[in-house]
């Protein structure tokens, strides 16, 4: 089964007995531990960027645990700190939480599992913060391509092509399913070109009747048709010096196709009802979700116009063919809609991210955006979980492995194998607990796994046994939400 990366823990306590005991408890769980018996030395050790969690005694000579806590959080606010005290009071807990502590433990420990579970929970929170920061850095890195988001090889190829064609004046044809971001590509090309300071004009060719479309594109003169009460400039004239984006070019009627061809060939437009043409300098970027080659062969699209448009082609892949981009996109939309809804939703649970990654996304990026917006509005937690997603995402995996494998067939082999293994392991652990009446010790013995490792697996796969109930949070900063975001696949 998959192994979880263990957190590196710094333990600082001037009591050598407690220091040794806590170190042994954590090392038994697989955590690398740095044990120090002096607060001043502990402050220096906490500067190590590989330290994930710090466990501090609250009363120490030379420098108190509270002072050490404040110093550590000031220097490294991302580190999770757990306080230990033999004099637990409400006031102590509140002071520690206000100073930035994740939780506190009372000495002597009634149950040594409490130590390891508290550290594990703090480590999960640290991992969630790290993953969120990594996604934010990736989002910042892509800002040069406006709102285009992706780290897959397919999207990197698109970015490279956008970079290359932006500096030319050649006509571009963008092909892709609805919701893949064709207009975003067009805008990226325009705003990286020498025309960036001139207009970018977008028109959906499928949304207008033939008469209205010609009037919108080429303009008209007064009296040219019923309702033409005055002269009007068309969008080609409005875009002079800039770029015009013709979305759904495949739906343009044959008569309008002839007039578009003239614009591309002669660089001039003639308003509806006018005799004299008007010169325009406009770069044309067209987009379609249909196969223009097939439409040309079927006589539905002019061959000469097709070749005029098809100088440079950019094919946008559907989201289901680039599942490694789902975590990055989901986090981007999470950030957008938590801001709009003014809600503090900090992440997406592994189960939810797994469900999002496996989905086929027939509506592509637009559908994913709608799903995340819905989840942000509905969730009452600080992280989106499967229950916050639409009903189709909440269905339990099919028992029939053939059905399950078919549902993953659109993914790359390594990605599909990883997700299938996670689904199997979660079902196995759930079934084992059910068979053993949700008794963790009995289930661990039946699995042939020692109890601590078995508990770690239950936590990793978010399967709850009878003794795995989460403890109540002890402050406003406690993390009672789901675990860290699922790692993006490479």
TrEMBL record:
CDD domains (alphabetical): AAA (cd00009)
Compartment annotation: Cytoplasm
GO CC annotations on file: cytoplasm
InterPro entries, A to Z: AAA+_ATPase, AAA_lid_NorR, CheY-like_superfamily, Homeodomain-like_sf, HTH_Fis, P-loop_NTPase, Sig_transdc_resp-reg_receiver, Sigma_54_int
Annotated ranges, domain Response regulatory: 8-122
GO biological process: phosphorelay signal transduction system; regulation of DNA-templated transcription
SUPFAM superfamilies registered for this protein in UniProt: CheY-like (SSF52172), Homeodomain-like (SSF46689), P-loop containing nucleoside triphosphate hydrolases (SSF52540)
Top-level lineage group: Bacteria
Modified residues (4-aspartylphosphate): 57
Pfam families attached to this UniProt entry: AAA_lid_14, HTH_8, Response_reg, Sigma54_activat
Molecular function GO labels: ATP binding; sequence-specific DNA binding
Record key words, sorted: Activator, ATP-binding, Cytoplasm, DNA-binding, Nucleotide-binding, Phosphoprotein, Transcription, Transcription regulation, Two-component regulatory system
Domain Sigma-54 factor interaction: 148-377
Record region (Disordered): 462-490
Entries under PANTHER family matching the protein: ALGINATE BIOSYNTHESIS TRANSCRIPTIONAL REGULATORY PROTEIN ALGB, TRANSCRIPTIONAL REGULATORY PROTEIN
Protein name stated in the entry: Sigma-54-dependent Fis family transcriptional regulator
């Amino acid at each position: 089964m998959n192994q979880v990366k263990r957190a590196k823990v710094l333990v600082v306590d001037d009591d050598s007995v407690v220091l040794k005991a806590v170190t042994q408890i954590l090392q038994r769980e697989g955590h690398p531990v740095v044990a120090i018996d002096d607060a001043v030395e502990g402050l220096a050790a906490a500067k190590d960027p590989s330290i994930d969690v710090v466990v501090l005694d609250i009363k120490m000579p030379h420098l108190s645990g509270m002072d050490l806590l404040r110093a550590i959080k000031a220097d490294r606010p991302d580190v999770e700190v757990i306080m230990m005290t033999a004099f637990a009071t409400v006031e102590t807990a509140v002071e520690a939480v206000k100073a930035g502590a994740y939780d506190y433990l009372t000495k002597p420990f009634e149950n040594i599992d409490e130590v390891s579970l508290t550290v594990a929970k703090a480590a999960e929170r640290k991992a969630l913060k790290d993953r969120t920061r990594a996604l934010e850095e990736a989002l910042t890195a892509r800002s040069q391509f406006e709102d285009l988001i992706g780290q897959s090889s397919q999207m990197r190829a698109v970015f490279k092509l956008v970079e290359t064609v932006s500096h030319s004046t050649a006509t571009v044809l963008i092909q892709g399913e609805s919701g893949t971001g064709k207009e975003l590509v067009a805008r990226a090309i325009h705003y990286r070109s020498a025309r960036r300071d001139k207009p970018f004009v977008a028109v959906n060719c499928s949304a207008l009747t033939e008469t209205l479309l010609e009037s919108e594109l080429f303009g008209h003169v007064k009296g040219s048709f019923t309702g033409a009460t005055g002269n009007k400039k068309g969008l080609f004239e409005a875009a002079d010096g800039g770029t015009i984006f013709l979305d759904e070019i495949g739906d343009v009627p044959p008569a309008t196709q002839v007039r578009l061809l003239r614009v591309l060939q002669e660089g001039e437009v003639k308003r509806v009802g006018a005799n004299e043409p008007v010169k325009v300098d406009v770069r044309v970027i067209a987009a379609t979700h249909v196969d223009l080659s097939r439409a040309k062969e079927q006589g539905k699209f002019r061959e000469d116009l097709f070749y005029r448009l098809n100088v440079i082609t950019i094919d946008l892949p559907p989201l289901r063919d680039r599942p490694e981009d789902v975590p990055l996109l989901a986090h981007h939309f999470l950030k957008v809609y938590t801001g709009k809804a003014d809600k503090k939703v900090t992440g997406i649970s592994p189960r939810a991210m797994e469900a999002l990654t496996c989905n086929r996304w027939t509506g592509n990026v637009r559908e994913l955006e709608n799903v995340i917006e819905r989840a942000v509005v509905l969730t009452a937690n600080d992280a989106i979980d499967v229950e916050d997603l639409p009903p189709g995402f909440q269905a339990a995996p099919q028992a029939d492995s053939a059905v399950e494998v078919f549902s993953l067939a659109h993914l790359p082999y390594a990605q599909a194998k990883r997700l299938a293994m996670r689904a199997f392991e979660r079902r196995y652990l759930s079934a084992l607990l059910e068979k053993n009446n949700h008794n963790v010790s009995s289930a661990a013995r039946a699995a042939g796994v020692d109890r601590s490792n078995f508990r770690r697996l239950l936590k990793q796969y978010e399967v709850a046994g009878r003794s795995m109930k989460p403890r109540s949070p002890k402050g406003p900063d406690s993390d009672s939400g789901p675990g860290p975001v699922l790692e993006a696949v490479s």
